[in-house]
Amino acid sequence: MAFRVEISPRAFADLDGIAEYIRERGSFAQAEEWFNGIITALRTLEDLPNRCPVADESEDLEQEVRVLLYGKLNRRYRVYYSVRQKTPSTGAVHVFHVRHWARKSLSSDQLQKLKGDRTK
Predict the structure, then answer these.
(1) Is the dihedral of CA 35, 40, 46, 49 positive or negative?
(2) Which of 31, 52, 70, 85 has its C-alpha lying 20 to 30 A from 21's C-alpha?
(3) CA dist., res. 114 & res. 14, Å (int)
(4) Does CATH number 3.50.50.60 belong to domain 3-116?
């Protein structure tokens, strides 16, 4: 565990909203299973955060934004995050947004705003 995973308040709100949506249309058990599963997937970023591809939307940004895909088929979610490395094997992973994969892609400006928005 060389990298520390930091989940922004905005990303927690995204996760909470998605879990609530699943609960309303399914069950509490399904929502809990999804939430626990995505948290487990986020924890895998502690060891190999650079294994996920760079988001196409981050082309025009100064720092790479990576995207972790979580889920199966039409229930897949994109987790946007950036990696701040102190050394080649240590640093922090900042998770700042989670959205359903079928939603319209973010623009570079939207991605930059979400990336910089740590207060919401």
Answers:
(1) negative
(2) 52
(3) 12
(4) no
Closest Cα to residue 34, out of 76, 66, 5?
76
Does this model's pTM top 0.90? Answer: no
- Give strand pairing partners of 96: none
3-state secondary structure of 6: strand
State whether residue 27 is helix, strand or coil.
coil
Phi, psi at residue 9, to the nearest 5°?
-55, -35
pLDDT per residue rounded down to tens, the chain (120 residues): 689 999 999 999 999 999 999 999 999 999 999 999 999 999 999 999 999 999 988 877 777 999 999 998 778 999 999 999 888 888 999 999 999 988 877 777 777 777 776 433
